[in-house]
Backbone:
């Protein structure tokens, strides 16, 4: 009885979560250019269009480059900060941890508007690289959180043992700390990458008029003219996200990364 | 290495880049925004440095106050629906085998990372007259003619619930997965059916977590900017929509900034509330 | 028929058999301790009795009624978990009253019963205390009171005392036994602690590898272990190989008259507890060996003797102390009265 209830409940939730994606997938393989479901005709042409249509192609590359760069910058900001907080006792430095978490916890429009006013005032409004900085700041929380978790999981006696064997700070970092936090580094980068790909409002407010990322292009298409490429891009995004998180799960302990205690085998 | 306070100037080196970036590109923009909120708007979309409360006063007029009220109501509704749906789900998920949990977690993370645009597009398709739920129902013979299910409040609520549900589950997950499984087993041995055990033991024991989650989902929902536009009519637009509208289309930056500042204050008040509730829970 | 009967109860997890066709009869009012190493299946068995896990084979009968398919909350039992599982959001009194509340018992009855139980566990007036403010021993007693609130037919406990410190544990063992005798309730305790089992139980059920190796009274288990596992698991013992050569029984190559091997087998093992090994001068009828180590612990003396490669330990108190030194040759008399011949 209990098991039946669980199965039914999970099935309903699964349907709720999957339904929009199923419909969009159906629309994306529709041969004709109309927004109809069930699809009439079967074709992958709209997936190809992502790369053959110049507008979509440049948006695709813009999004990917932006994501790669901003995730890297986010990690570059988060790593020394997390390291410093772990290595040193400096209560006043925790303010930077708060600053790191703030952009992500506040409603996104706030960060977007703040950056907009800033770039407008400094005169760099609309330059593509401002989007990289904007995304990096907005998403710095993710690698910061994963790295803090990773650092706190390091057994200090390992570091102390290395010191007794003659390793200085830099060597310890290179040979002990870095290998141990690598999974958290990777997962932090992965999260930031995927979220940057999907991010709309910060990109829109800072460079929306000079550069189109995929989410911006989809929204414009929604407003001004439907094309099935929107659907194929959507499915592409879902697959990328699933792939990235699947890889993180494959090579790391996902439940632990999300707050479970270590290995509770059921 | 022992943990020790920084001694030489060089010890501060790792902090320079992150601190610099965060201050320059978060604190300063934020401060600029606050400053601009007090500026005087001028014709043609410009504004001059000033210190006036006009923008805030304008906000407190009935129209904009109404929008704030609507935004809060919508966000609360989303939070409640998500927690009601998400709590039993996360509880049951946390009792499952590790492998099953991982599959669901990957799926939830994938949906969580989806752009608001994409969610808006997907649900607008589902609610449309040509490619949506009603088409399926017509095909099954349950309806005569397909209709558009949007734009309306229900559509906005559904879309936002879809967006916030994975977030709710991930917020509840740590607490539920650490919940002592023998508590429900004990309740069952004492005569409570599994459902009764859930409501008399699990829910009360997690009182503080539930409250904190409600607040966090509320904040999350407040940030929704596209879904109200895509799935609803102008009367359904939230504060976030108005802020962007004023900033870009009405070229009224000071006013947009003022509204943003108010939004921040509300959010901060709620975060403080969450922390307080959390602390109270720990000492209990 | 009154009591609990386990009929060929089995639990398989894929290829792994946690509980293997267990057959056991627990008469009403007895105190049973299920004893065994980690992974032997005792906790799984207890959980099946409680209904928290379902058997893959066999049946469970309580007072003549087959309860195998009955869900946990309808079995009317009382269970104490290793973690105690006290509800953190309820007070002591509310915890104890929970099973009554669930069954719709009237408010005044609840209050009365809670008072009775608090008196029974020697915590009068604690009804309004939050459970988080109690000591380990007090929490233990509240868990017991809660389990007994409805006067259940069956009282189950899963390693109930493992979280307590040694001194408290010893005291609670006695308390629990006295309580059970006072109430006359059928009780099953799972434990890995032998002293606990010997102190409290009417019947000790020794388990290993999902099977019951022996179920008997504590002294019977100690004096007459059924097989090598039980002999070795309970207390300490010397296990020596035994052979039958041409009508004579020999242990470690030396003849020992008076021992018989049941079933006429050619070889077996003999188990002699260290306190039954007596050292004397080497000679007729005695197994000879060499002293390799002496551990003088003050109250007892352990003498390690090497006999043809096998180490035998003799334990004696200073009063019976034989004066031996390391390297000396000694003889060991094996008394058929205290030696147990084991064929499995």
Residues:
């Amino acid at each position: 009885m209990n098991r039946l209830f669980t199965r039914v409940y999970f099935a309903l939730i699964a349907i709720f979560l999957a339904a929009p994606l199923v419909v969009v997938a159906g629309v994306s393989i529709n041969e004709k250019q109309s927004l109809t479901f069930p699809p009439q005709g079967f074709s992958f042409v709209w997936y190809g269009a992502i790369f053959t249509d110049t507008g979509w192609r440049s948006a695709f590359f813009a999004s990917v480059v932006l994501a790669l760069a901003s995730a890297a910058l986010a990690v570059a900001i988060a790593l020394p900060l997390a390291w410093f907080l772990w290595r040193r006792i400096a209560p006043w430095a925790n303010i930077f941890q708060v600053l790191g978490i703030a952009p992500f916890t506040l409603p996104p429009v706030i960060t977007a508007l703040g950056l907009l006013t800033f770039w407008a005032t400094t005169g760099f409004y609309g330059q593509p690289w401002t989007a990289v900085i904007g995304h990096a700041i907005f998403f710095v929380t993710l690698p910061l959180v994963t790295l803090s978790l990773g650092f706190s999981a390091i057994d200090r006696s390992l570091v102390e043992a290395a010191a007794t064997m003659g390793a200085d700070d830099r060597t310890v970092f290179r040979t002990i700390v870095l290998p141990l936090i690598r999974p958290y580094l990777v997962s932090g980068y992965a999260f930031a990458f995927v979220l940057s790909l999907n991010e709309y409002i910060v990109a829109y407010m800072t460079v929306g008029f000079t550069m189109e990322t995929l989410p911006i292009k989809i929204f414009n298409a929604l407003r001004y003219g439907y094309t099935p490429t929107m659907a194929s891009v959507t499915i592409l995004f879902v697959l990328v996200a699933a792939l990235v998180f699947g890889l993180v799960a494959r090579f790391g302990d996902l439940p632990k990364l999300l707050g479970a205690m270590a290995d509770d085998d059921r | 290495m022992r943990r020790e306070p920084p001694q030489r100037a060089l010890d501060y080196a790792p902090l320079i880049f992150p601190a610099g970036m965060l201050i320059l590109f978060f604190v300063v923009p934020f401060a600029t925004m606050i400053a601009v909120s007090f500026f005087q708007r001028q014709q043609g979309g410009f504004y001059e440095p000033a210190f006036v409360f006009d923008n805030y006063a304008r906000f407190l007029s009935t129209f904009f106050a109404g929008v704030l009220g609507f935004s809060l109501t919508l966000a609360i509704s989303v939070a409640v629906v998500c927690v009601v749906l998400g709590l039993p789900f996360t509880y049951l998920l946390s009792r499952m085998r590790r492998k099953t949990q991982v599959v669901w977690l990957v799926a939830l993370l994938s949906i969580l990372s989806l752009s608001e645009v994409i969610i808006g597009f997907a649900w607008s398709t589902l609610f449309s007259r040509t490619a949506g739920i009603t088409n399926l129902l017509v095909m099954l013979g349950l309806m005569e003619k397909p209709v558009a299910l949007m734009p309306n409040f229900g559509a906005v609520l559904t879309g936002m619930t879809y967006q916030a549900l994975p977030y709710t589950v991930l917020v509840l997950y740590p607490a539920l997965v650490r919940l002592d499984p023998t508590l429900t087993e004990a309740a069952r041995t004492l005569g409570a059916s599994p459902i009764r055990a859930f409501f008399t033991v699990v829910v009360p024991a997690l009182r503080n977590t539930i409250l904190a989650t409600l607040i966090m989902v509320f904040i999350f929902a407040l940030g929704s900017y596209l879904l109200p536009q895509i799935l609803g009519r102008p009367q359904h637009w939230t504060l976030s929509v108005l802020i962007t509208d004023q900033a870009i289309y009405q070229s009224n930056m000071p006013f947009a900034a003022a509204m943003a500042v108010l939004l921040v204050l509300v959010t901060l008040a709620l975060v403080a509330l969450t922390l307080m509730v959390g602390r109270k829970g720990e000492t209990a | 028929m009154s009591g609990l009967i386990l009929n060929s109860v089995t639990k398989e997890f894929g290829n792994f058999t946690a509980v293997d066709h267990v057959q056991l009869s627990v008469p009403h009012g007895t105190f049973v301790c299920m004893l065994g190493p980690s992974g032997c299946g005792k906790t799984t068995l207890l959980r099946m009795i409680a209904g928290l896990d379902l058997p893959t084979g066999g049946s469970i009968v309580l007072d003549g009624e087959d309860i195998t398919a009955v869900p946990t909350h309808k079995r009317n039992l009382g269970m104490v978990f290793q973690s105690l599982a006290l509800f953190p959001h309820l007070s002591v009194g509310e915890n104890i009253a929970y099973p009554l509340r669930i069954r719709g018992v009237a408010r005044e009855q609840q209050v009365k019963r809670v008072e009775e139980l608090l008196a029974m566990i020697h915590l009068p007036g604690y009804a309004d205390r939050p459970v988080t403010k109690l000591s380990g021993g007090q929490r233990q007693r509240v868990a017991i009171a809660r389990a007994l609130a409805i006067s259940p037919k069956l009282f189950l406990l899963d390693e109930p005392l493992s979280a307590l410190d040694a001194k408290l544990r010893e005291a609670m063992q006695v308390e629990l036994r006295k309580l059970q005798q006072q109430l006359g309730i059928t009780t099953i305790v799972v434990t890995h602690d032998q002293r606990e089992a010997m102190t409290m139980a009417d019947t000790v059920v020794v388990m290993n590898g999902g099977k019951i190796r022996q179920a008997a009274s504590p002294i019977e288990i100690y004096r007459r272990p059924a097989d090598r596992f039980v002999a070795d698991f309970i207390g300490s013992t010397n296990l020596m190989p035994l052979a039958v050569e041409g009508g004579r029984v020999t242990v470690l190559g030396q003849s020992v008259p008076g021992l018989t091997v049941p079933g006429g087998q050619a070889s077996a093992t003999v188990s002699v507890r260290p306190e039954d090994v007596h050292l004397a001068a080497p000679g007729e009828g005695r197994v000879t060996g060499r002293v390799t180590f002496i551990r003088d612990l003050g109250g007892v003396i352990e003498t390690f003797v090497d006999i043809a490669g096998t180490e035998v330990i003799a334990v004696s108190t200073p009063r019976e102390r034989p004066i031996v030194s390391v390297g000396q040759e000694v003889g060991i008399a094996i008394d058929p009265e205290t030696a147990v011949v084991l064929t499995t």
Notes: The first strand of chain B starts at residue 40 and ends at 41. The radius of gyration of chain B is 24 Å. Residues 66-283 of chain B form a domain with the MetI-like fold fold (CATH 1.10.3720.10).
